[in-house]
Amino acid sequence: MRHVHLLDTSVASDNVGDEIIVSEARHFVQELFGDAYISTSSSHDGLGHYGRQLVASADVVLLLGTNALTAKYQRRGHFVWEVGLRDLSALEQKVVMFGVGASKDFDAVQPRQARLLKRLLSPHHLHSTRDETGRTLLEAAGIRAANTSCPTLWRYRESDPQVPATKAPAACFTLTMHKAAPQDAPFIDVLRESYDTLYFWPQQLRDLGYLKSITSTDDIQIVPPNLAAYDALLRETDVDVVGTRLHGGIRGLRHGRRVLITAIDNRARDIGGETGLPTLPRTATPSDVKERLHADFKTELRLPTQAINGFLEQFRST
C-alpha cells in the first residue's frame, strides 16, 4: 500500500487563498491515491518530530500549490515552505511539486538554491508548476517540470466554466493590503457607480483594515473572512467577483460567477496571460475598469490539458 505525505500549504497560513488551492489539489490527490495511506504536515511550519517520521516512511511527498518556489536561497526564514536542517534527510529526493508557483520574477537561480531544490525534489517524477515562471525556475535548477497552470483551474481542462457574459447587479470585491496602491480607492468608486450592492471579502484579515483606511464601509457589506461564508455568498447571491485576489476570483468560477481580476504581481499576470482568465493590468484607469465591467465578455480558458494529464498519469502508472 502506498504512503503519500502532503505538505499542506493551507495549515498555519493567514491567507484563505491557500485553503482554496489546497481544497482543489486534494480533490485530485483523492482521485489519484484513493487506495493509499495519506498523511499531512504544514509546509509553513516545517515538519516537526512527527512530521519527519511520517515523511521518512512515505513513498512520495506532494507540496500542494501556492507560491513556494523562489530563486533565492531560502532554507529557513519566514517563507511559505519551511525546511529545517533536520527535515532535509527525511525529504531528500521525495518531494513532488503539485501545481506550485514562483513567488516573484527572477533573473537567475542562486546556485545554493538550485542545489537545495535538487536535493529535495524527486528526480523520478515530472514536477507541476502553475506558471511559466515556476517552470523556468525549476528547469534552470536542472529539474524536469511542466507548466500545468494552477490546480484550481484543472477542473476546466475539458470544458469552460459556465458563467454569465453580462454584468451582475452586485459585486463582491477583494483588495490586497500588502500590495496597496493609489488605484485602489478609485477602483472602489467605480464599483459604487457600476453596481447596486457591494460586498467585500477579506481573503486575509488585514485586508479589511486596509479597506477601512481608504474608504467608508457604510454602503459595503462585509463577508466574514472564511471560505464557508464566501462560498455561501457566491452560491446564493448574483454577484460579479472582482479585485486583486487571484484565488478569491477563481473561486467565483466554481459557483458560476463572472470574474475580473486585477493583476498586481507575476501570479495573476502569468496565469491570466497563459489561460485567458479574465484580468486587468494594475495600470488600468478607472474608465478602463468601468468599460470592462459594463462590457459583455465570455470566459473561455486555454488550459494545458496535455501537460495536466501527463503530470497526473505518472502517478496512476506507479
Which terms summarize this structure?
six-stranded parallel sheet; 12 helices; 12 strands; alpha/beta
Topology:
Layout: E1 3-8, H1 16-32, E2 37-42, H2 48-57, E3 60-64, H3 88-91, E4 95-100, H4 111-120, E5 127-129, H5 132-140, E6 145-147, E7 170-174, H6 184-194, E8 197-200, H7 206-214, E9 220-222, H8 227-236, E10 239-243, H9 246-254, E11 259-263, H10 266-275, E12 279-281, H11 286-294, H12 305-316
Parallel strand pairs: 1-2, 1-3, 3-4, 4-5, 5-6, 7-8, 7-10, 8-9, 10-11, 11-12
How would you describe what is shown here?
This protein is an alpha/beta fold. 38% of the residues lie in helices and 17% in strands. It has 12 helices and 12 strands. It has helices at 16-32, 48-57, 88-91, 111-120, 132-140, 184-194, 206-214, 227-236, 246-254, 266-275, 286-294, 305-316, and strands at residues 3-8, 37-42, 60-64, 95-100, 127-129, 145-147, 170-174, 197-200, 220-222, 239-243, 259-263, 279-281. The strands form 2 sheets. A 6-stranded parallel sheet has the order 2-1-3-4-5-6, with helices on both faces. It has a 6-stranded parallel sheet with strand order 9-8-7-10-11-12, with helices on one face. Strand 1, helix 1 (16-32) and strand 2 (37-42) form a beta-alpha-beta unit. Helix 1 crosses helix 9 (246-254) and helix 6 (184-194) packs parallel to helix 11 (286-294). The longest helix has 17 residues, at 16-32. The chain is globular, with a radius of gyration of 20 Å. The chain starts with a strand and ends with a helix.
